[in-house]
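Hey everyone, long-time lurker, first post.

I ran two proteins through the pipeline my lab uses and got sequence/structure pairs for each. Pasting them in order. The first:
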Amino acid sequence: MWFVRLIPVAVFVAFALAIGVWFAAGRSADVAMLRVPGTDNRTQEQGASAVDLAGEFVRGDGKAGNDDGLWPGFRGSSYDGISSEQGGWTAPGPAKLWEIPLGEGYAGPAVRDGRVYLLDYDATKRADVLRCIALSDGKEIWHRAYQVDVKRNHGMSRTVPAVSDKYVVTLGPRCHVLCVDRVTGDYKWGIDLVRQYRTKMPPWYAGQCPLIDIGRAIIAPGGSALMIAVDCETGKVAWETPNPRGWDMTHTSVIPMEFGGVRMYVYGGSGGVAGIDAKTGKLLWETTAWKVKIAAVPSPVPLGDGRILLTGGYDAGSMMIRLAPSGDGFKAETLWTNKPDVFGAEQQTPIFYKGNIYGVIPGGQLVCLDPETGKQKWNSGKNRFGIGPYLIAGGVIYVTSDTGTLSVIPADPQEFHLMGSAEVIPKGHECWGPMALASGKLLVRDLTRMVCLDLTKAAQ
C-alpha cells in the first residue's frame, strides 16, 4: 500500500504505515512524543484548493525489459505478502543492480511486465508524481505529476499503487485518487476524496493502498461513504457503501477475501472492522470489538476459513475473529486476543504462511504465532528488526531493518534461525516502505532512495 514511526506508508504502502517505539534502536521518549498526533505542530491541511489531477505528463528514456515477474500492489499478487518466486540468498548478500533518489517518504513499489510503479513526492515542484521505471536499470519510462501542497510530516508519500493489466490507480497523501493507463500513462480519471466524500485526512497523511478488483478501484474514503467501487475504464462509481456510524479513513488497506461463497472486502475503519459485498457494496457484517485508538495501520489478514487476524500498535495487540452465517449476511465472533508483547504490529501487516503467522511485534522481535491458540511458537529474542517491511519467498522471510539491513530467516515454525544478513542500503534511514519482489529482483527503499537487488547473484 508506506509511514512514520508512529505512522509513516501506507506499504506501503501501502502500504499503509504507522510508527512505534523501536527499543533495539534505543529511540528516546522525546522522539516518540514527536510522533504523536498534534505534538509536532503540523496542521491537518483540510479544505485545500482544487487539484488538477490530470497534471503534467513527461516521457523519459527508460524502456521496459522482458521481465515477467509480478508484484501488482500492496502485499503482492494474492494480497498476502507471499511471493510465488523462489527468492535466493548467497553470501555476503545480493548484488545491487541500481539505485535511484526519491522524495521523502515510505511509499512502496508495484511491478508488472518489467515496469516499476511508484507514487513519489517532488518537494521542489510541490507535486505528487506517479513514476513508471524500468525494472532492468532504474531509468524512468514516464511520469505523471499533479501539483498539491504537502508539507513535510515525517515524510510525504506512503502508499503502494494498484496495477492491473490495463490500469494504475494511486491514492496520494492528501486523499487524491488517480487512474492512468498502465503502459502509456494516459490520464483516465481522478477523485478528490476530501471534496467529494468529505474524507477526513488521517494524521501523517493517507496510508491506505488502493485495490483493483474485478475491473474496479476499491477505496475506503470514510466520510459520506464507508467504501466505494469505481469502474477503472470510465471513472463512474459502481456502488457506494453507506457510513451511518461515521467511521473515518484509517491507514489500513482494503483486503479481499472469500467466505461462504461470497467475495467481500474487509476493512478496518476508525470504529471497527467491516466486510463489504464485492458485487453490490452491501454491508455484510461489522464488529466494533476491535478498535485501534491511535494509528490503525496493519491491514486485516484473512486465514482462508472465515478467520481474520487483526493487529495494531499503541498497545492494541491482536485479535482473532471468525465469521459465521447470520441471516442474509454474517456475524463476527472473537476467538482470542493478545497483548502486544505476545503479538501485535505497529506498522507492517503480518503474514499467514502454511498454517502459521509470522510478524514483527512491538519491540522488534520476529515471532511465529500459532493461529489456533494465539500463543508464540518462537520469538527471535535479542535479534530485533525494528519496524521495517518483510515478505516471504521460497519459504524464507526477507525482513529489512529500519537502517537498511536485509536479513533472511526460514519460515520454519519449529525454530528461529538467522540464515544471513547484509547492509543493502548503507546508513539507511527509516526503511519502512513495503518491499516488492519480481523476476528475482527485490526492491527496497529508505526515506530518500530505492535500490534494486538481484537475489540470484551475490554482491562483489
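...and the second, right after it:
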Amino acid sequence: MPTYDYLCDACDHKFELFQSMSDAPKKKCPECRKQKLRRLFGTGGAVVFKGSGFYQTDYRSDSYKKAAAADKPPSESKSESKSEGKSSSGDSGSKQSSKD
C-alpha cells in the first residue's frame, strides 16, 4: 500500500496518507473540513520492492553463483594497493623536498 500526498486548496494543509491503491482519493480536509482536498502527483504513488527475492537473479543455482564469484576479481585487494601507493608516493615527495 503506497503513501499519497494530499493538499487542501482552502487552508493549504499538506499531509501524507497511507492507503490502498484501489481506495478512492479523499475529498474532505481533516483540518478545515472543506471539500477542497486533492491528491498530489509524486513518488509516493509507486510501489517499491526492496530486499531479496524480487529479481530473477536472486533465484540462481548454487553452481551459477560459484562460477560468478570465481569470475570476479577481489575488489578489496585493489583498493588497498591503490591507497598504499598514494600514501607512499606522498611520503617520498615530502622526503625529497626536505633533502633540498
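Reply from user beta_strand_b:
Welcome! Quick read of the second one: The helical segments are 62-71, 75-99. Strands lie at 3-8, 14-18, 37-39.
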